[in-house]
Amino acid sequence: MRARYSVEKVSGEDLRQRIPSQPFAKQAAATLIVVADGGEIDAMHSPVAEEFAAVLAGAMSEHVYLAAQALQVGVRLVYSIDRETAKRELQLDGGDTPYFGIVLGKQ
């Protein structure tokens, strides 16, 4: 069972070449893939659940930006990712939705 609202390592492979689309993102020191938990969205039983999940993803990315700034780490949101590859390689459940990537590296 996955922990709620967490950052998890789900693969020992280097997936940076397969998930981000932009060349600069493939060279980043680290890449986070932000994913909406389909089970959590369904459990909300609300017509606005998917929009709420997108807002939470945006808020979470803002926290990553603030932490990166404080640590003097370069950060950039990357919307252009291969979502099907992300679902497969990260072993996501059917309803889980990869939203975007956040790449981190030297400033």
Describe it.
This protein is α+β, with helices and mostly antiparallel strands and 107 residues long. It has one domain (23-105): NADH Oxidase (3-Layer(aba) Sandwich), CATH 3.40.109. The chain is 37% helix and 20% strand. The chain contains four helices and three strands. It has helices at 23-26, 38-44, 49-70, 83-89; strands at 30-36, 74-78, 97-105. The protein has a three-stranded antiparallel β-sheet with strand order 1-3-2, with helices on both faces. The termini are far apart. The model has no long low-confidence stretch (mean pLDDT 89).
In summary, what is this structure?
With 107 residues, the protein is of the alpha+beta class. The chain is built from 4 helices and 3 strands, in the order H-E-H-H-E-H-E.
Which helices and strands, and how do they pair?
Layout: H1 23-26, E1 30-36, H2 38-44, H3 49-70, E2 74-78, H4 83-89, E3 97-105
Antiparallel strand pairs: 1-3, 2-3
Structural class: alpha+beta
Strand order of the largest sheet: 1-3-2
Please describe the biggest sheet, giving its number of strands, its sense, and whether it closes into a barrel.
3 strands, antiparallel
Give me the CATH architecture, please.
3-Layer(aba) Sandwich
What is the strand content?
A: 15-25%
Q: Could you state the order of secondary-structure elements as H and E?
A: HEHHEHE
- Give the domain tally: 1
Distance between the termini: 36 Å
- How many strand units? 3
What gyration radius follows from the Cα positions, in whole Å? Answer: 14 Å
CATH topology: NADH Oxidase
Contiguous helical run count? 4
Uncertain residue ranges: none
